[in-house]
Specification:
- By secondary structure, this protein is an alpha+beta fold.
- The chain has one domain: Translation Initiation Factor IF3 (2-Layer Sandwich), CATH 3.30.110.
- Helix content is about 30%, strand content about 25%.
- It has 3 helices and 6 strands; from the N terminus they run αβαβαββββ.
- The protein has helices at about 1-15, 40-50, 70-80, and strands at about 30-35, 60-65, 80-90, 95-100, 105-110, 110-115.
- The strands form 2 sheets. Strands 1-2-4-3 form a 4-stranded mixed sheet. Strands 5-6 form a two-stranded antiparallel sheet.
- β3 (about 80-90) and β4 (about 95-100) form a beta hairpin.
- The two termini are about 30 Å apart.
Amino acid sequence: MAGTSVSWSVGYARMMARSVSGTPRVDSHRAIDGGDRACGELLLQLVERMRRFPAGTVVRLVATDPAAPIDIPAWCHLTGHVYLGCGRGPDGRPHYDLEVSAAATATRQGMPWRQAKPNPQPEGLTSP
């Protein structure tokens, strides 16, 4: 778990360096309004948009799905993108700040909650 906390700490330090107020600066074209989409649909939209941005870009996802506080950090952990934290906008809607990673793990087409390449099985084990 040390790698996870280091990755988060590095991402958080980058985020704080970008903003004097402690809130990351996010251009409007790097903000994604996920509205009330459910997790699967939300992740499909997020993956499509994040592919367009270079590594190091901070993306703000606005999402009201009740599962987002669990799903978004978990997806970042799965893919290697950096989860920077969450907050609420002036309109009261929750938002989640992510940093695009150059070393992100690809996900399956149409199934962004699954890695594109499964981990190889240890030698001697067979598939059912």
